[in-house]
Amino acid sequence: MKNIVIFGAPGSGKGTYSDEIVAKYGMGHISTGDVLRGEIKNGTELGKVAKGYIDNGQLIPDELMIDILAKTYDALPQGTGVIFDGFPRTIAQAEALKKMLAGRGHDMGMMIELVVDEETLMARLLNRAIEQGRADDNEETIKKRFEVYRNQTAPLSEWFENEGLRHTFTWKGSKDQMLAEIFEAIDAENN
Fold first, then answer.
1. What amino acid positions are annotated as catalytic residues?
2. Is 189 a domain residue?
3. Mean pLDDT of each 10-residue bin along the chain, 191 residues long
């Protein structure tokens, strides 16, 4: 199974679709958000540093994220493929991930891009804040995260296109329809 980078703005469904893909294909799943929240919850040195960036709506420094990812990636079973959820977020991170994987004889495989309008995203994130008690999901921080996404992350879509890895899926109001299209693309890439 090929590795997958799942890509989209905050609230686009990266975690939700990753869970569905993991359930269907038995892949590993690295959610940088979950990894970072775990470090913060456990009060580790990394968690304290990460919290400062997250609270200000900023991205974690690349070298820190690559070290965390490499450690997490190496702990997963080999050969099942891994979904990278929430990373890379910049072209520099994509290059670093490509290099890290190449050093292990692996590649990125494919990128799944989730496209959802910002009004829908804001509603989802504010609802998630209520349901999950996530302090990083308030309107001011969400707007900063959208701005960071537009300025730093969205240009990465073209990088994946140039690498021949991008598969784009646009939200049309149905999770099941989008999921069926994603599964079709994964199946086509792995045959």
1. 14, 89, 128, 134, 145
2. no
3. 92 93 95 83 85 80 83 87 90 93 94 95 91 81 89 90 96 93 96 85
